[in-house]
UniProtKB/TrEMBL annotation:
Protein name as annotated: prephenate dehydratase
SUPFAM superfamilies per record: ACT-like (SSF55021), Periplasmic binding protein-like II (SSF53850)
Keyword vocabulary terms for this entry: Amino-acid biosynthesis, Aromatic amino acid biosynthesis, Lyase, Phenylalanine biosynthesis
GO molecular function, one term: prephenate dehydratase activity
Pfam families: PDT
Keyword Nucleotidyltransferase: no
Species in which this protein is naturally found: Paracoccus spongiarum
Functional pathway: Amino-acid biosynthesis; L-phenylalanine biosynthesis; phenylpyruvate from prephenate: step 1/1
Prephenate dehydratase domain location: 5-180
Cell inner membrane listed as a keyword: no
PROSITE patterns: ACT (PS51671), PREPHENATE_DEHYDR_1 (PS00857), PREPHENATE_DEHYDR_3 (PS51171)
Record field: catalytic activity: prephenate + H(+) = 3-phenylpyruvate + CO2 + H2O
Lineage: Bacteria, Pseudomonadati, Pseudomonadota, Alphaproteobacteria, Rhodobacterales
Domain ACT: 194-271
InterPro entries the UniProt entry points to: ACT-like_dom_sf (IPR045865), ACT_dom (IPR002912), Chor_mutase/pphenate_deHydtase (IPR008242), Preph_deHydtase (IPR001086), Preph_deHydtase_CS (IPR018528)
Length: 285
């Protein structure tokens, strides 16, 4: 049974909601309070897909996500990227000169310091971005605005007084789209494989485990470590590599990795997003 719903964490109008509308415009977005609720919605069949943010180009990885993915029982089927465009939202009819305060999540407040300083606007910490937009709409106070995605203005009936006011123009968040069943059948020019692993307790285990990727010419685009259950001696690694597990070079590298690991769990095999190819093309040689 399918629901045609895609679950995300946050209020309607959040950047995760924007990611859902962009990547799956025909699906109904399902807002959830926590990442755990997003995962549970897919596991129980309340939603078909989960949209989960994993990292941001400015602030790094999203806390707790790497701990949740291996235990979720879900599989990565796609990646999506959202440019974090920030708008100043206010009650209808408000001129920019009347705004004295702007409410948002602390992360967004820190990304608009230049604009806020130029216009004499003081920051006010809110629970999240879309929730701040909803609060501004509810209060109806023209001196209080919100910093949020343009989508939030549409949902909560606010005016966009200024767009793309972020200090950094390349701020981007990467999302993973996850489903109950994996899909290894697809092929494209650039496939990605994501997995988690723990190395065996032997000298130079990580060095030896990584050697198979070098000798087989497999490009590793991401390798991150994190503690397991708060124990300093238990380290788990998350990795993204280019290629499909059925490719000969990837198969040999993964076989060698398995020899030096006590746990290896493939989270998903999926096509690389077009943004990756664009960045590779535009990057200096």
């Amino acid at each position: 049974m399918t629901t045609n719903r895609i679950a995300f964490q946050g209020e309607p109008g959040a950047y995760s909601h924007e990611a859902c509308r962009s990547a799956r415009p025909a699906m109904e977005p399902l807002p959830c309070r926590t990442f755990e609720e997003v995962i549970e919605a897919v596991r129980t069949g309340a939603a078909d897909l989960a949209m989960l943010p994993v990292e941001n180009s400015t602030y790094g990885r999203v806390a707790d996500i790497h701990h949740l993915l291996p235990e979720s029982g879900l599989h990565i089927i796609e990646e999506a990227f959202v440019r974090v465009h920030i708008s100043l939202l206010a009650v209808p009819g408000t001129p920019l000169s009347q705004v004295r305060e702007a409410m948002s999540h602390t992360v967004l407040l820190g990304q608009c310091r230049g604009f806020m300083r130029r216009h004499g606007i003081h920051p006010v910490t809110g629970a999240d971005t879309a929730g701040s937009a909803r609060e501004v709409a509810a209060r109806g106070n023209p001196s209080l605005a919100a910093l949020a995605a343009p989508l939030a203005a549409e949902i909560y009936g606010l005016d966009r007084l200024a767009d793309q006011i972020e200090d950094r123009q390349n701020n981007t968040t990467r999302f993973l789209i996850m489903a109950r069943q994996p899909d290894f059948s697809r092929r494209s020019d650039r496939m990605l494989t994501s997995f988690v692993f723990r190395v065996r307790n032997i000298p130079a285990a990580l060095y030896k485990a990584m050697g198979g990727f070098a000798t087989n010419g497999v490009n590793m685009t991401k390798l991150e470590s994190y503690m397991v259950d708060g124990v300093f001696t238990a380290t788990q690694f998350y990795a993204d590599i280019e290629g499909h597990p059925e490719d000969d070079d990837v198969r040999r590298a993964m076989d060698e990795l398995a020899y030096f690991t006590s746990m290896l769990n493939v989270l998903g095999v999926y096509p690389a997003a077009p943004l990756r190819a664009a960045q590779l093309r535009d990057s200096p040689a």
